[in-house]
Design brief:
This protein is about 40% helix and about 30% strand. It is of the alpha+beta class. It has two domains: about 30 residues, no CATH class; about 100 residues, Alpha-Beta Plaits (2-Layer Sandwich), CATH 3.30.70.120. The longest helix has 23 residues. Keywords: Signal.
Length: about 140
């Protein structure tokens, strides 16, 4: 019984938080995330952004202008310019989004980093939720 209770705890906690959110209208911290994806140029960035949105893996993708990047690659210090995508999505979609981006991204190891959204404009967070289908 104790083991079963421990195994069920994450699921029961999640259900309790969802119920609390539905009743009170409060936001559950971490329900949504921002994903950072780097791209070689603006055209690749636009193509990946459109592909993500076509698959309904995000509500919005911002394409930020060029930035300089310094990094080690295969033992050598490299310098390049990159375009950064800011992807707003459900946290539950991060795995699927990451797999999809890796399958279409030209980089051998693309940067795909996510950070949970702690708080924000409730109406904007609701819009993300309405725009990205549940699992």
């Amino acid at each position: 019984v104790v083991i079963l209770s421990l195994l069920m705890y994450p699921m029961l906690r999640s259900l309790a938080l969802q119920l609390h959110s539905a009743i009170t209208g409060s936001y559950i911290s971490g329900t949504h995330s921002i994903v950072f994806i780097n791209c070689l140029n603006e055209q690749i960035a636009k193509d990946i952004a459109r592909a993500i949105l076509d698959k309904k893996l995000a509500a919005c993708v911002n394409i930020l202008p060029k930035s300089s990047a310094l990094y080690f690659w295969k033992g050598e210090l490299e310098e390049s310019t990159e375009i950064l995508l800011l992807v707003k999505t459900r946290t539950s979609k991060i795995g699927e989004l990451s797999n999809y981006v890796r399958s279409i991204h030209p980089f051998e190891i693309p940067e795909i980093i996510s950070l949970p959204i702690d708080q924000g404009n409730p109406l904007y967070l609701k819009w993300i939720e309405e725009s990205v289908p549940r699992d």
